[in-house]
Amino acid sequence: MANILIKHAQIVTMNKQEEIITGDIRIKDDLIVEMGSGLVPQEGEKLIDASNRTVIPGFIQTHIHLCQTLFRGKADDLELMDWLRKRIWPLEAAHDEESLYYSAMLGIGELITSGTTTIVDMETVNHTDFAFQAIAASGIRALSGKVMMDQRGGDVPEALQEDTAASLQESVDLLEKWNGYGNGRIQYAFSPRFVISCTEPLLREVRDLSARYNVKVHTHASENLGEIEIVQAMTGMRNIVYLDHLGLANDRLILAHCVWLDAEERRILHERGVHVSHCPGSNLKLASGIADTPGMLDQHISLSLGADGAPCNNNLDMFNEMRLAAIMQKPQHGPTAMDARTVFRMATIGGAKAVGMEQQIGSIEVGKKADLAILNLYNFHTFPSYDVDPISRIVYSATRADVETTIIDGEIVMEKGMLKTIDKET
Ligand code: GUN
Ligand code: FE
Predict the structure, then answer these.
(1) Nearest-10 crossing angle of helices 97-113, 128-138
(2) For ligand 1, atom 11: residue with the closest CA
(3) Is it the case that residue 424 has pLDDT exceeding 90?
């Protein structure tokens, strides 16, 4: 952690008033300690001149699979269940410790260089400790966990099939090793893959463990019609109804996708405070469908964004997800349905709420963690003198190439495209 003074920046705060101001930000250790104009550099502070730069809260992606980064290009043009059976599960089963470490590192590098500072990540069945090692060394903020697959629904390959007790024990061992690590930068999240691959005793135990340790549960639900049919045949219920029946639907639950919901499921999501991670790129590429995000927002369901795994959309870039989240709704719901500010909110403070950290991250305010990205929006987009809403410019035209610096927990983890290894404990 460092002491940093950022001067002369345009700051997209995402505070309660969603103010956009021009000024300086002082960072001491992991925290933003002062904001204003004319702040005077103090001894030992690193000075960043952010003239003509825009500082934003780091993006929070609430659904990622770092273990899948190396599979890009190996799983294209398939629908979910075939994609899993034919490509993703065999590839995950083939991971060894080293390949998992590098898959995670490659993904984290892409995330950090494109301004993402926090992820909710799901690993594979084996070797998850090595993904945590990559997370620790990279400096990214992460909630992660080993995937749990103790049921052969959907033809899970032998190599990923695990015993219920072993799955739970390995998860708890990883939790005890990593939860709270690195100034709280790493948290454990139980990660039952989806209803199809998990037994009821496992899901009930996960519910109890998440309450006992006060950690999140991260899973997939109602992504694809074929998946929903299998869940219905196995449980006699729709996905969200089943999760609620088991007592899992609460504000510790982060659900990826939720493309296909009926009215009862929406009611459950709203009433229980479940957090939905919308993954537009993945939903389009896997032909899953178009989630009704305007409807979910109208119903006050907690919504945030994620890129899913690299082979789901070939890209872990939040700029891509924000843009898709906005434009894919417009033909059906009109031009203002998912406007730039709504989508940017989902990418920042919405993600912070999903991970239960809205007091710490998701906006740029005194007392919050210093998790932010510095953008040069004058790269190719427009002339500096143009008076353009920076949020609109970020959502509709910015790219990862515009991210100059990423800071997480007060540490500069990327500067001018160069990543830095942070962790001194491993
Ligand atoms: N459902 C179960 N597993 C997966 C996965 O790895 N990716 C996606 N997109 N959906 C899933
Ligand atoms: Fe996923």
Answers:
(1) 30
(2) 220
(3) no
pLDDT at position 378: 81
Residues contacting ligand 1 via CB (< 6 Å): 65, 80, 84, 88, 193-194, 220, 223, 282, 308-309, 312
User: 121 among the known binding-site residues?
Assistant: no
Residue range of the domain that includes 104: 59-354
Beta bridge partners of 186: 142
The 3-state DSSP class for residue 276 equals strand
Q: Find the 220 Cα to ligand 1 centroid distance in Å.
A: 7
Answer yes or no: is 18 a known binding residue. Answer: no
Residue at which a domain ends, from 337, 354, 371: 354
Domain boundary among 332, 354, 376: 354
Q: Do 39 and 188 fall within a single domain?
A: no
Number of domains forming the structure of the chain: 2
The predicted-structure confidence for 188-214, as pLDDT tens digits, reads as follows 999 999 999 999 999 999 999 999 999
Q: What is the ipTM of this complex?
A: 0.99
pTM of whole model > 0.90?
yes
Do 69 and 33 belong together in one domain? no
User: Any idea what the CATH number is for the domain that residue 49 is in?
Assistant: 2.30.40.10
Q: What angle do CA 320, 14, 309 make, to 5 degrees?
A: 30
pLDDT bracket for residue 426 (50, 70, 90): very low
CA 98 to chain centre: 23
Q: Which two tokens stand for residue 386?
A: 């143009």
Closest approach atom of ligand 1 to CA 92: 6
Residue 425 lies in a domain: no
Residues with CB under 5 A from ligand 2 (ion): 308
| Ligand found nearest the CA of 147 | 1
Chain segment 82-118, per-residue pLDDT in tens: 999 999 999 999 999 999 999 999 999 999 999 999 9
* Ligand 1 atom with minimal separation from the 227 CA: 1
- Ligand closest to 312 (CA) is 1
Ligand nearest to the CA of 149: 1
Cα end-to-end span (Å), the chain: 16
pLDDT class of 155 with cuts at 50, 70, 90: confident
